[in-house]
Protein 1
Amino acid sequence: MSNYPVLVALSRDPIAEKLVFSLKDQALTFGVSLHSIGGQVGNGAYYVERFESNSHLDTAQREQLRSIAASFNADLCFLRSNLVPQDIRVLAMDMDSTLINIECIDEIADFTGKKSAVAEITEATMRGEIKDFKESLRRRVALLEGVHADALESVYRERLRPNPGAVELLAGANERGMYTLLVSGGFTFFTEKLRQQLGFKQTQANTLEIVDGKLTGKVLGEIVDGAAKAAHLDEACSRLGCTKANAITMGDGANDLIMMNGSGISVAYQAKPVVKEKADAAFDRVGLDAALLLIS
């Protein structure tokens, strides 16, 4: 079997023949042939079609093909041809803006009127413009000093929602017997609630210091940054007797890249451009649960 990529088109609607022709025609301009595998199939929520490539595709070529797919309201993934779906045993994912619809720290800051200041730092960090995540988090958490701890519960109840397909993804992963890991640069208050709600086997995040019912503006213990996320994934795989190559990883920001790099399948969900370019799959139109089609 070749080491060239298998392309997977995913859509909520039937995949148009014109999309297939457009992808193949564009690939030919790169000197690459795409051959359909097995035709189009659907599972009730999504439609999927796969293509074999006879050559490597560089980043710019992949982005051009993704742009064509997007014009037909489809997402395009590039998987290793030797990937064995049954070998994927671990699901590791980010929380804020990946599993859930918000950046929790930004919403907490809203209770102090400092949301825009915190969100500005958050965005720059996720785009990769602020390289030191630990320093970024300390700066943002410092702005939360004096916020009443009740604000955390309010954010959870009033603003936090699982992203489309999150519930189905976790149900499907757990049904398969996969080890599900939530690794977040966010906060344990939220990861613990989501562990109970969605059935994660393990969660790792940062702990906000609370004194006399108020946030002190400090984080307790070691900060979970990009390197720590990757380390927690490696440790989980080691305990299971497998490696990162047996994991599907999902994230949206620059601090997810270390965890995603080298995993069996990396999925960028509604992600920053720097993450999409490096990920095997970029989900902008399908829900999180479409990942189950990549490992079935």
Protein 2
Amino acid sequence: MKGSVVIIPTYNEIENIEAIITAVFAQSDDIHVLVVDDNSPDLTPLKVKELQGVFTNRLFLEVRKEKSGLGTAYIHGFRWAIEKKYDYIFEMDADFSHNPTDLIKLFNACAEEGAGVSIGSRYKTGVNVVNWPMNRVLMSYGASKYVRIITGMQIHDTTAGFVCYKREVLEAIDLNTIKFIGYAFQIEMKFKAYLKQFKIIEVPVIFTDRTKGVSKLSGGIISEAIFGVITMKLKSLFKNRKDYEIKNDTY
């Protein structure tokens, strides 16, 4: 997994952070980790700084001034990783809902199977979710179906947050144009890669709900995903129409 960095955004993850960092590093001696923390009041960044003494030159920390949303945390991490010239850039939660042992599967989909984007998919082979209440499973599964219909993307798990990007994909996407910050951020990133015609592979994984800490899911994040998708699709159609008209004007 040489050239790989796992971006882990955190806010009040003191109960999970040491264990998740240790588990990620156990997968490969070549993998690096970047924690992007939103100035957690539970002192998560202090624990990360302590661990930097153990994982020298492999563990990195960026602390932002305030809680500004998942999407902006990942954008911050993407820019950092692009500047450092990492070839494979991962998104991963801190709460063990994403199993670190699946990192190699996502890596292989990009490094060996030619994907520009690989997705740890909960719904590729049915519904592979553990410890979620039924209403949340239905909401998540239904949202992915809804997004698939609206956008035309042939992706089963459009809201997945366990993802590997090749650097060239993130360089091709204008990160300044990414508007959403919650679940819709995950959809928007996949949609932008889809519009750029990068190969996207879904890798079946089992998603396990957190056992420690507090979920960051909110009603506002859900609304953003539902209504934002329609806006995103309409804008893409308008842009394609505009591009078509410009091309026609040149002939």
Protein 3
Amino acid sequence: MTLRIGDIAPNFDVETTKGKINFHDWIGGSWAFFFSHPADYTPVCTTEMGRTAQLADEFKKRNTKPIGLSTDTIEEHNTWILDVNDTQNTNLTFPIVADADLSIAKLYDMIHPSESETAAVRSVFIIDPNKKIRLTMTYPMSVGRNFDEILRVIDALQLGDEKHIATPADWRSGDKVIIPPSINNEEAKDIFPQGWDEVRSYLRFTEV
């Protein structure tokens, strides 16, 4: 199935390195960073698992729970975690889904046959507390993810929900933001009493 932004993330019950979970129950009132890997004991995946563990405090600040998936077993995951911790100088505590039968990888369209019939590509799903998919990214198996970008888009999504704004190209936390065209100037006066810079009628920048 093809999953799109705005869809409800498909629910599932599965064994993980932290025990059996129901995905929606596990997310609860948090955001989720759900990301897949081709296989355990692969070099790029090892660095990504390690980087996620190193950023545990950053994800926590954003009320976001990481959860990984690899098309291997719990036993393989548990021994791989020892390697991740050792080689990446970290302590991995988030759950990793066991998906040896590829059922969840197929449910989330993580198997791209031109890349591999049996390994999940590097998919990313950012899921909000309402269980809606808010962002997707797909990388080839040979390219590691940019975790600065993952944190940036979580910040942008959460700020947009809170302040009714959009973010411009290359936005970073603290930069000016955009007032969406769906908010006219009269409405904007109440929502953005700090005012704004109107470059064009459709392009208005403000501080938040």
Protein 4
Amino acid sequence: MWPFTTLAQAQAWERAYRSSGHQSWHRDPGRTALSFTRGYLGFTEIDRVSSRTVSGRHARIGVAPTGPESGTAAVIHLVRFGTGPDAPWEVVGTDDTTFSLTTPAYGSPVRSPLVTGGRISGVDESIRVQVRQPSSEAPLGTSACCTPAGGDDQPWNVSVSFSGARDPVLTVIASTGGHVAEVERFTITAVRTG
């Protein structure tokens, strides 16, 4: 999903790293998770790692905004992309508990407008959905702000239109917040351009 869209890109980074130490953050799952959250998603207030579990080629990194009342916004799942000792970490999704994005299914082909949905637990939640691609800084589409939701394990759905998709893989992001931080929880999935 991110930061590399092909194995060839990841291998090119490995060669550059070995020759010059280029972008060493790709070797650290925590730094990669924060770069994904702050840089790619644009959630700049999420600026710390709240948990870290690394097991073999998989890592699960909790990220959170700074503040005494802020909890983990998401647990980002990363895997090593490639087989070499310097294989970089790649974001592949989130481990979801109280906020999930299950529609569209991971890896499914999509078109605009995109119907999204999942389940949420919480009080007075406001869900916003974005569609992004790695080759663009701006979102390809953002839902109207914001869809009210809440309760205990309740379904939610949001429709979002998008345009300008050029990359083969897109990232769909659902976020909620506004109580103690702009983004308090988020969930992602990867889809294919259809």
